[in-house]
Known about the structure:
This protein is of the alpha+beta class. 32% of the residues lie in helices and 17% in strands. The protein contains 12 helices and 13 strands. A hairpin with a 5-residue loop joins β1 (2-3) and β2 (9-10). α11 packs antiparallel against α12. The chain starts with a strand and ends with a helix. The mean pLDDT is 90.
Amino acid sequence: xxxxxxxxxxxxxxxxxxxxxxxxxxxxxxxxxxxxxxxxxxxxxxxxxxxxxxxxxxxxxxxxxxxxxxxxxxxxxxxxxxxxxxxxxxxxxxxxxxxxxxxxxxxxxxxxxxxxxxxxxxxxxxxxxxxxxxxxxxxxxxxxxxxxxxxxxxxxxxxxxxxxxxxxxxxxxxxxxxxxxxxxxxxxxxxxxxxxxxxxxxxxxxxxxxxxxxxxxxxxxxxxxxxxxxxxxxxxxxxxxxxxxxxxxxxxxxxxxxxxxxxxxxxxxxxxxxxxxxxxxxxxxxxxxxxxxxxxxxxxxxxxxxxxxxxxxxxxxxxxxxxxxxxxxxxxxxxxxxxxxxxxxxxxxxxxxxxxxxxxxxxxxxxxxxxxxxxx
Length: 376
């Protein structure tokens, strides 16, 4: 795998060793037809794990499925940061190891030799859970060349992915701006919705706002993704995984009332086939909350289930300046105006910064519900 000028990895054929068998093309999920027989109208569920909700960036649905697979003597594969803050897919085989897989990582993870390891486990009749972006799930299926009953795949509701190189260029810039060494990063706090991204700076946890949070400001504007993300063929139904997981944004605002507190986060789970439903039904009712919701409600504020992200006009310049060590975050903000200065953005930032987000969100939800009732 060779990195391009933006830090994104691409496969490169070693012409000296190639025998012309064509297996690389036969295993490429973009080139081949994936033969996806999943449902065009999956069932939608609101889910949270009682055991994991307080330490997950959403409702903890991933952890609930992971616990189930581990209880069967299986193995779980997901994205994790190493000690140098590089994002890689790793294998875990105990509940204690799950912590490193929890939490959102808005950066492309490196797969490495994970597919080969999964194939070996499945051949040994072991249970395996693989969680990743839809293209990573499709890549696994293309590599395996067959289905396995003991494999459970979870595809993420994915906006797109920035490169690891760009993320580290940003880390370097924010370190300089705050005059310290960043040794930890959380894209989203794990104790509920409405918490600012945070860094561990010289041992102290610091929330990020405004220019310091420019990476996520650019992410939210679709400005730093891999170019192929803007034409992703997996951002549609039928979805590629056995289940799709994400945040259940807007729950209760667009459908039937949701009579539960959402401040700690609620996961969205789509069951895309019989296997997905089977695993969902096996979740322990005492430890996992599950409520079926209308699919249309789930789609309203989860645009990327059905659609690719639209590239920002200045995308190439923003990426180049993010990667340029001589360009500061302040200069990037002055040039591209990425920080959300709208009234909604300002209110959200104030709510997050002064811990008023749950109150403001509740008030906003009531306005939306009343408005929708009036329009009816």
